[in-house]
């Protein structure tokens, strides 16, 4: 009787899904040809770094290149919410709405989205954090973790996460 129930019990025992903090960890990267208006071509780069800092949170840094030298650059600590990481910027940067950014896996893509361009303050005129995607297959292990953890961006992000104070409060102290 017990032997007959083992397969049924085993079917019900599903391992919990990994937190997105761990499941998305790594460095995502792509290069592409870009051009300055009326000028030469240059190599553009999109870089996303994700490092778990707790079971349900991860540090992230995003650098995206756009036409004519415009960029988007944002970093912070995002909380795991369901299958995604969600960053809510405590600073409003002179706006009446706060930046809310999601990072998630969607099949073969890493998707980044700030909804209705709530994070546009982090981008140049031609940049956006809305509906951005990178190949998930570009993910690699971060091999410069010691340098990353010593960076200003990482230290300020962890201080913001731990205290709830906006990053700008830590710029003077760093």
TrEMBL record:
<feature type="signal peptide">
    <location>
        <begin position="1"/>
        <end position="23"/>
    </location>
</feature>
<keyword id="KW-0732">Signal</keyword>
<protein>
    <recommendedName>
        <fullName>Lipoprotein</fullName>
    </recommendedName>
</protein>
